[in-house]
Automatic annotation (TrEMBL):
GO terms for biological process: carbohydrate derivative metabolic process. Signal peptide: none annotated. This is Phosphosugar-binding protein. InterPro entries: RpiR-like_SIS, SIS_dom, SIS_dom_sf, SIS_GmhA/DiaA_subfam. Residues 30-209 form the SIS domain. It comes from Rhizobium mongolense. It comes from the Bacteria. GO terms for molecular function: carbohydrate derivative binding. PROSITE patterns: SIS.
Length: 242
């Protein structure tokens, strides 16, 4: 391993170790909110724009993942339809609400919003919508980043019921390129996926004690087809991506 790759691994591992302590309480709160929703047959929506949308896909129809998660996917605000224009869309007021209305979110549901910068129009609008309809809002964001760039704008961290502060620096990248003034090695996706998977594992553990953990199996595992088909049949009516 070279010095650069070693530095990236070490930086990421160090951040995850620190988050085990700093996020212990908010992760417990998030797990409790999600567990309560699950026990009342509610759904957990996951939303993000740009690269943050990968967290919505991370927990969707995932081996070892919970079946009541619903990704909110807005093509124009992702990357595959045009990365440059997606940055414009995520800053555009009015884009998110009509999309969320189509998902049929209900009171008692949960919406997890991933936004590292935490100030763009799309995640703010998603948080406002969630609160208006009576859903719990969980934010995955960098408080340091949003504080540095807010300039009077509202921050996702100020709206959410539970804030999972990933502790990342403004700009996301964590490694300096000597003599260039550039930084490389973004970590928000790796950190966000770890945090969410840990929370959902906690929820699944609690649900399993009553024999009611709707967990997908890998398609290549014995009995997976029967288990997954049953879960898809149950959860498809409120998940347009199944």
């Amino acid at each position: 391993m070279t010095a650069v790759t070693d530095a990236y691994f070490s930086n990421l591992i160090g951040r995850l170790e620190a988050l085990k302590k700093s996020l212990a309480e908010p992760m417990a709160k998030a797990a409790a909110v999600i567990l309560d929703a699950a026990r009342h047959d509610k759904r957990v929506y996951v939303f993000g724009t740009g690269h943050s949308h990968m967290l919505a896909e991370e927990v969707h129809y995932r081996a070892g993942g919970l079946a009541f998660t619903v990704p909110v996917l807005i093509g124009s605000a992702m990357l595959h339809e045009g990365a440059v224009i997606s940055s414009v869309y995520e800053r555009t007021q009015g884009l998110v609400r009509p999309v969320l209305e189509r998902y049929g979110m209900q009171p008692g549901d949960v919406i997890i919003i991933a936004s590292n910068s935490g100030v763009n129009a799309a995640p703010i609008e998603a948080a406002d919508y969630g609160r208006e309809i009576g859903a719990k809002v969980i934010a995955v964001t960098s408080v340091a980043y949003s504080s540095a760039i807010a300039n009077g704008r509202r921050r996702l961290a100020d709206i959410a019921d539970v804030v999972l502060d990933n502790g990342l620096p403004p700009g996301d990248a964590v490694l300096d390129l000597a003599g260039s003034g550039l930084k490389v090695g973004p970590v928000s996706t790796a950190v966000g996926a770890t945090v969410l998977n840990a929370i959902f594992a906690e929820v699944a553990s609690a649900l399993s004690k009553s024999g009611d953990a709707p967990v997908y199996l890998s398609a290549n595992m014995p009995g997976a087809a029967e288990v997954n088909q049953r879960l898809v049949k149950k959860y498809r009516p409120r998940n347009p991506h199944l």
